[in-house]
Amino acid sequence: MSARTALKAATSDAHDRVDAAFAAHDLTDATSYGNFLQRHAAALGPLEQALADAGAGALIPDFDEHRRAPLLADDLRQLGLTAPPPLPAPRFASDEQAIGGLYVLEGSRLGGAVLRRGVSAGLPTAFLSASQSSGRWACFVASLDQLLYSRQRLDAAIAAAIDSFGLFEWAAKDKA
Asked: Which residue of 55, 67, 117, 151 is surrounded by the most CB atoms within 10 Å?
């Protein structure tokens, strides 16, 4: 089984919980969409920063240039909203843990492209429009088998991915 397949299988329940938690947001309604963006902001910025601190730039070329927190903040400003307080992100103490976090973060770009189609015209969509080129995703998943070559490394990546999904689930449910 490839590392990508193992990551997908091991994190599918966590991914489903995040999808379900955010599904209540009506992306055609400005208020609900704004809340959707605020909930993402509570998790995305801290997760991007934790990954940057863990050296994600060495694992993914141009990681810093593709960070989406500034785009999300701009979308919120256009709606007259601010980001909620950031939630505490997981710590990534190894490359394999960072890969697990990156798996969630980079994969969410694919979901953003799908969600973007459901947003009403006139609402800001820079965050959701920052989708990933198929080449970028393909390069990332192709590197997984090289980076997660042992069961121990794969298990560390899986645990970090589950923690990263958990951060988004917490953000979706947080009412602070």
From this structure: 67
